[in-house]
Each structure stands twice: as structure tokens, then as C-alpha cells.
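Thread title: Can someone regenerate the structure for this chain?

I was given the following input by a collaborator and told the matching C-alpha cells would be attached. They weren't. Posting the sequence so someone can regenerate them.
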Amino acid sequence: MTLMIMMTEETTNEGITIRIFRSKAFVMSKMPGTIIFDGQEIGKLKNGEEMKYTTTRGRHNIQIKAPTAISNNLSEDLEDGDMIVVSMGLVGWSIDLKR
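Best answer:
Regenerated them for you:
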């Protein structure tokens, strides 16, 4: 399973919009992934789902949790065009920033 969090060109007066994708995959397909953004749960994604979240530019902490696994904590300055890729495998979640 792979989740992609992408900074889009959609902006508001409040900040930037993050799009979070979870591609369909067999591994962990029945378990939702809980998105933790700056210490707050902002949503859960099931296999093949997508969501949007508006935030401010700057440093943010992102983590993904499932009932049996948790990703590393990614702390990065997020900007337009950034993409955060979250993967789920047999040994747990992985989260990385791609520029």
C-alpha cells in the first residue's frame, strides 16, 4: 500500500491544501491508516481513498498509524509542490518527503 501526500497549487487565505492519497494494495488493505498531522488526527483513509486538508506553510509533523504499525515521524518545512510518500509493507509504515 502507498499513500501520497502532495502539496497542490490550490491556496486559500489560510494557507495551502494537502492532498493525501492511499493507493489500492493487497497488503493491509482492510486496515485504515490514521493521518496524524502536528499531533492531531485529521482523518482515516481506507484502501483506495483520498482526502484534502488545508494547513499553513512551514514546518509540520506527519505520521501515519494503523492498528498494528506506526510510521516514522516526518518533520519538514512544507511548500507548494512537495509530495510526501507513505508506504505500508509487511514490516510497517514508511514516510518520506520527495522534492
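The beta strands are 2-12, 15-22, 33-37, 40-45, 50-55, 58-66, 69-70, 74-78, 83-89, 92-98.
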